[in-house]
């Protein structure tokens, strides 16, 4: 799946500019784990709720996981 930079401060990145890794934690989910969970219709609701609160994820990702967890809570009979 490759790698991903989270944008902390908006700005312009031009060809030749460098990006700096500031922090890496072993507890952060990988992009592969995020997409597999996001696309799996029977994903573990507890994992979805945990990732919805994960501080390493941006607002949009947290919102998607929050919405998914809420939907699963309302529709447990489907899975």
Q: Notable features of this structure?
A:
79 residues; mainly alpha; 42% helix
Write the layout of secondary structure elements.
Layout: H1 31-39, H2 45-52, H3 59-74
Helix pairs in contact: 2-3
Could you provide a short overview of the structure?
The protein has helices at 31-39, 45-52, 59-74. With 79 residues, it is mostly helical.
- Unreliably modeled segments: none
The helix content is 40-55%
State the order of secondary-structure elements, H for helix, E for strand. Answer: HHH
What Rg, in angstroms, do the CA atoms define?
15 Å
Major β-sheet profile = none
Number of helices: 3
Total strand segments: 0
Shape summary: elongated
How much beta, percentage-wise?
A: under 5%
Structural class: mainly alpha
Separation of the first and last Cα atoms: 27 Å
Average pLDDT, rounded to a whole number, is: 82
Overview of the structural elements:
With 79 residues, this protein is an all-alpha fold. The chain has helices at 31-39, 45-52, 59-74. Helix 2 (45-52) packs antiparallel against helix 3. The two termini are 27 Å apart.
């Amino acid at each position: 799946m490759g790698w991903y930079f989270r944008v902390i401060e908006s700005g312009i990145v031009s060809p030749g500019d460098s990006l700096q890794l500031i922090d890496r934690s072993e507890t952060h989910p990988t992009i592969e784990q995020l997409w597999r969970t996001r696309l799996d219709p029977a994903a573990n609701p507890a994992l979805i709720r945990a990732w919805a609160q994960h501080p390493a994820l941006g607002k949009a990702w947290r919102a998607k996981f929050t919405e998914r967890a809420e939907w699963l809570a309302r529709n447990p009979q489907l899975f």
